[in-house]
Amino acid sequence: MIEQLHALHASVERLRGIVESLAPSQLTQAAYPSEWTIADTLSHLGSGAVIMLATLDAVVSGRPVADGFNQSVWDEWNAKSPADQAAGVVAADHALLERVGALTEEQQASLQFPFGPMSLGLPEALGMRLNEHALHTWDVEVVLDPTAVLSEQSARVILGSLPMIARFAAKDDGVERNVTIRTSEPSQQFVLVTGAGSVSLIPGVGDGPIVELPAESFVRLVYGRLDAGHTPADIDAAKIAALRPLFPGF
Predict the structure, then answer these.
(1) Could you give the C-alpha distances from 6 to 13, 79, 101, 137, in angstroms and in order?
(2) In this structure, what CATH number is given to the domain that contains residue 120?
């Protein structure tokens, strides 16, 4: 859990610094997903923290979250002003981290979080929160600083979940591929296999072409955030262009 928790703490602090630097007029500026404003993005993260905290309390107590709770949280956050959404995400993030920090070692080792059809241990649940937090923090930061990238610390943790993310979010285009993805900072390798009605991303080395790129860029590719304008200049543009349709983002 330590790696995921440390990375989430760092992402929370990064977002706090961004939020504290925002002028009121910037809150209504479009974020990277242009259908959302910066305030909308912060509201999404803040409500997510509230819901995860309630889920954690429910798991610890053995009592389920009340029916309709999630929708009530979203409604509450949607009704906030942009300024309150910005202030609220910082408070909600820190409340969640404080609750996690108060867990006993036994609870940390035994808790199981419901996650769609799956059940995740605390490290995996924190990792999924990090994925959401780091990518949406980038969604805000990049419209303020077009050179923004994910931190190596976040990328290192998120890489481990990419095979699962690709399995659920990637879209096969019918083209048969066996491509080795080789990342740097940190160094890892994955085999990307497509063409059989699904997209598989498997740790290891394949027997096809090699695509090399920074780990943070690969994370953004899988999350649909490696458009041409935010792709490092030293990456093979043609190879990345061929892979982008597989990862429409979410």
Answers:
(1) 11, 32, 11, 16
(2) 1.20.120.450
What are the tens digits of pLDDT across the range 75-130?
A: 999 999 999 999 999 999 999 999 999 999 999 999 998 877 788 999 999 999 99
Question: If DSSP codes are grouped into helix, strand and coil, which group holds residue 216?
Answer: helix
The number of folded domains in the chain is 2
pLDDT at 249 > cutoff 90: no
Per-residue pLDDT, 30 = 98
Number of neighbours of residue 149 by Cβ within 10 angstroms: 19
Whether 119 and 56 share a structural domain? yes
> Cβ distance 226 to 242 under 8 Å?
no
CATH number at residue 221: 3.30.1050.10
Give the type of residue at 231: T
**Residue 207 confidence (pLDDT) above 90:** no
Tell me, yes or no, whether 127 lies in a domain. yes
Reading the block at residue 209, the tokens are 């072409």
DSSP 16-52: HHHHHH--GGGGGSB-SSTTSBHHHHHHHHHHHHHHH
Residue 66 backbone phi and psi in degrees, to 5: -60, 145
**Cα 180 to Cα 26: distance, rounded to the nearest angstrom:** 40
